[in-house]
């Protein structure tokens, strides 16, 4: 087991709702000034433990195959590991030749950060557990204003669930655009939750509204579901 006592002292964890920690970094696409260069866009910033490793390869093939889908959702991708640009480029080139899970010719068109100095990894709490030289599988959802909206951390042995990653992005966008909340296991097209009344005079109105509406289902005055006609 590696000794990670020193690193643990330096690890900082970002928080949901706070501005994404800013950084300048060298990537496979040149220098990135984050989050400034991405203002107005959603970004999924993610780390992987190391280039040329098995689970990470399946994840990168999947990220590359979904990149256009994310771009259509106004969301770009940025990868990171404690590897050099040269390693990233070599790995991305190799990945293009692989075929797995109906993915082939997967071209990695998004930037991958060279974080050999671990500057970004430390700012984002990406170094955890037994290793002080590898990042965990972190995923940060950063909104067009540069705020952190969701964080996921997975261990090295478990590849990420990309249906969940897409669901989170679409769910955050839905919650923002329609000012609603989303129930357990929500997926696009399913009923959304209306914000609970916050004044006592609104409780009666909400109960009456739900009774009169074909689109609403109410479990109680504070829990009203509404059909999602927008179906984003
Ligand atoms: C992998 O991607 O397979 C992997 C990377 C680092 C540690 C263990 C597994």
Descriptive tags:
single chain, 232 residues, alpha+beta, five-stranded mixed sheet, three-stranded antiparallel sheet, 6 helices, 23% strand, elongated, binds benzoic acid
Characterize the largest beta sheet: strand count, sense, and whether it forms a barrel.
5 strands, mixed
What gyration radius follows from the Cα positions, in whole Å?
21 Å
Shape: elongated
Report the structural category: alpha+beta
What's the overall average pLDDT, rounded? 95
Q: How much helicity do the residues have?
A: 25-40%
End-to-end gap: 47 Å
Low-confidence spans: pLDDT under 50, at least 5 residues? none
The unique ligands bound to this protein are: benzoic acid
> Helix and strand string, N-terminal first?
HEEEHEHEEEHEEHEHEE
Instruction: Count up the helices.
Output: 6
Q: How many β-strand runs?
A: 12
Order of strands, widest sheet: 7-4-3-8-9
Strand content: 15-25%
What would you say this structure looks like, in words?
The model has no long low-confidence stretch (mean pLDDT 95). The chain contains 6 helices and 12 strands. Helices cover 31% and strands 23% of the residues. It is an alpha+beta fold and 232 residues long. The strands form 4 sheets. A 5-stranded mixed beta sheet has the order 7-4-3-8-9, with helices on one face. Strands 10-12-11 form a 3-stranded antiparallel beta sheet, covered by helices on one side. It has a two-stranded antiparallel sheet with strand order 1-2. β3 (42-47), α2 (54-72) and β4 (75-81) form a beta-alpha-beta unit. The structure holds benzoic acid.
